[in-house]
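Quick entry between incubations.
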Amino acid sequence: MIATTYPALFRLILPETIVAATALVVLTVDLVLMRDAGTRLRFAIGALISCIGCAGSIALMLIAPQQANIFDGILVIDPQTPLIQIALLVLTILMILISIESTFTKHVGEYLALVLFAATSMMFLVSSQNLLLIFISLELLSLSLYILAAFDKRSAQSAEASLKYFLFGATSAAFMLFGFSLVYGLTGSTNLTQIADATKGRPLDPLLIAAIVMTIIGFGFKVAAVPFHFWAPDVYEGAPPVSAALIASSSKVAGIVIFYQVMVIGFSGVETPGVWKDHMPVWVPAIACLAALSMVLGNLVAIRQASVRRLLAYSAIAHVGYMLLALVSHTEQSFSALLYYALTYALTTIGAFGVVAVVEAKIGGDKLSDFSGLSRRAPVLSFCMLIFMLSLAGIPPLAGFFGKFYIFAAALAAAPQTLGLLWLVILAIAMSAVSLYYYLQVLKRIYIADPPADAGPIQVSVVSQIVLCLIAFGVALLGCAPNILLGRL
Amino acid sequence: MGHLRFGILIMLAWTIYISFLGVLALLLLPKASVRAARIIALIATVGGLAVTLTAFAQQKSGTIVTVVRIPWIPSLGIEYHLAADGISLTLLLLTGIVATAGIFFSWNIEHRAKEFFAFYLVLIGGVYGVFLSFDLFLLFVFYEIAIIPKYFLIAIWGSTRREYAAMKLVLYSLVGSAMVLIGLIAAYVLAGAKTMNLADLAQFPFPIHFQMWAFPLVFVGFGILAGLWPFHTWAPTGHVAAPTAASMLLAGVVMKLGAYGCLRVAMVLFPRGLDAWGFYVLGLGSWRDVFALLALIGIVYGAMVALVQKDFKFVIGYSSVSHMGFVLLGLMTLTQTGLSGAVLQIFSHGILAGLLFAVVGRMVYDRTHTRDLDELEKINLYKFIPFAAVTFVVASMASIGLPGFSGFVAELQVLIGAWRAFPLYAIVAGIGIMIGVAYTWRAMQKAFIGKAESGSQHPSLPPISIPERIGAIILIGASLTIGLYPQLILSRIIPALNSPLFDGLRKGSW
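Done. Structure below.
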């Protein structure tokens, strides 16, 4: 047991502290020193400080990795945790770099600070196995996201999106907290491992079932699984592009990872005789239903969308469906499959939203028709979008394909003799074949449709181009050499 | 000597790399340089062809030779494993020939030429990759890489209902590959999730009930791309809509990917899926009977539909379905003659379909801007472009089975093989060949000989260009060579069929 003195504790959460402190620095610098500077300059300086802070935190985790499990699982740092945290910070940096050109707000300092606060809360979230801290981090994350969604004050849509997000989010938080309180009441602990021990072998208690259902509902809202997905399309459409990217990518990674931890560690003891296994946790069929519904509904509704952002929202719902497969199979392998999938998905989504942000800024909308002939107006941007869309559709050799393959193989391998989850895998593969149809709709606009008659080439800023190309390169690289990431999971 | 041979076979991997390097070069090429784009594409395809020809000449035995084998994703047992046996070599050679000829026939592409050749080379690289992969994960990766470029090639540079046809083709392909993926993942997991190696998985005794559903799943999955009736409908619309070079690749190479997958993956992995069910449904007692019947229906149906087409390209499109029926029928005979005939037919039809599409799409349509046989009949094309007419006559004679060309040997072998397994089917397939003579004759007559109406002098047609002549000569030469000396390919296919890989199918001896 590590001595839990304050200096030791401070040392353990130093990476998080650095990010939080950076947020405060950015806020101060912006408010005190740069009141009169132009938005571009303020964004540039603020982004620079933020990136340095994130990079510093990453460097610290790389140079001095630590392990800990203190205070009843409040802070758990196992070998995988820093990796997830680093990935989340990298995603944050990319997001900040993409937002550098935005003009939707004058409150640059507040904006960047909120992004960093969100990053901090995600880092705490993935390093905790205690319901209390999980809830607090989740709420800190959600509060940052609510404000970020509303950040475009000139747009009524942004306000509407934020309000919807807030109302749904608050409801889900209430459900989750209620569920957590029942769990605490039944087991007397908030530590996931202790909860599992306390519930192991006990007959099924209706209250416990209620607690699990509440928890699933709560997390279902957070990760936007069907039937708790209603907020997603509106938020993705209305929020400023970079906020939408944050909601769609890194917050989703953190959300699904912690969902996995709570269900698989916390509720693993509550078992029933299973269909494809002798014994399985009682929540598995429920999650299987959520997964199936999300895949089917997300993919089918996405076909009908005319707005690229809404299309991405429904595709996100579908992708959550695939990720939930990992919860259903819940083996060690499925956790690393889940991480690979979630991280590469987040990377791809940031890229896609980055392209949408540029198109919105230059052409003025995110309708499919706004993308017409983009390949002749901005070839590099279009090529990046080609990579992102094909990766999301699961076309090799891009990251999305290997992610799907791994998650499906892990699902089948959970019951290798009976192939118990075959039906779910078949559904998932069939639906991902469907998904290519709507991703191709976007690419069809970009590559095949003719550009508007008066359209000239689009000037994309150097920073955006470099960042998007880097992301596209990353997506291709992780697909061609999955071992780069897989070897560390 | 041994070292040298080894070195040259190592080069086979470069067929893939050259194609993708070509793509890279095209992407980095500054705009507007159509000529440079063409040259790069030509270098890449000729380079691939040169490598395959050399390897083909060096590797006379047809047994499996490993080209590259390095771990790729060690934790999952997935390897980057390229290897070639006689069957792969034959198909690589086919790919090289058709790809090179295709570049000659797309010499007139001016619109977004750089992108055209880039997509073209991605497709070719993927196809080479499939034929070389001996790791099933890798094979699937290349298989899917080959799907996407087809969409853009057809939708951007195509004609008649191009966007519809492109989407239909891609969705059909993808549904097929989804079925394949399900079967592959299930097989991988059942065998312990330790390896994706084809030879290792082929050795694994999968339970018979598993093989009984996995075999048809994977076979149909690949069969969709091979034009298996009734899943062939993407083929005619896709071929017709595609630009000439893409039609050539579709019919010449891509459909062959499907047939190759049926043989190399479905049949090799799940040989017992072909066993008798033990009961009969409508007189069919096994999946083998079912697919043989579907192949036969494809042969006859394709030929009959081709007989009544108005659009010249549709005639060739449906004839592809008919000829691919012979490949699938050959596979289902499970005899050495039938199987080697099927591979030979893959080669032969790849060359000839490429040639026919080149005549119809490039030589005729690009000049007359019509493919309507009734319209063409009025022009009397023979007078204006005799080279096209002669090429078409040669190609169609070869494809209906004129001795001396590749089609004859191939279909004859399939029929002999089928005669032993399904005598009745062999007779019906023979009738299919007769109908083939009829539709070919009709198309030829209408398109080229026609009724010369007085005074209907067609405005001057541009003469057949040099690149077109080169392309046609390459293809005719290939068909003639194999027709006169089939042993060239058979001597490599037969040892491959007798290798341990096919033990499960062979059951002792053929």
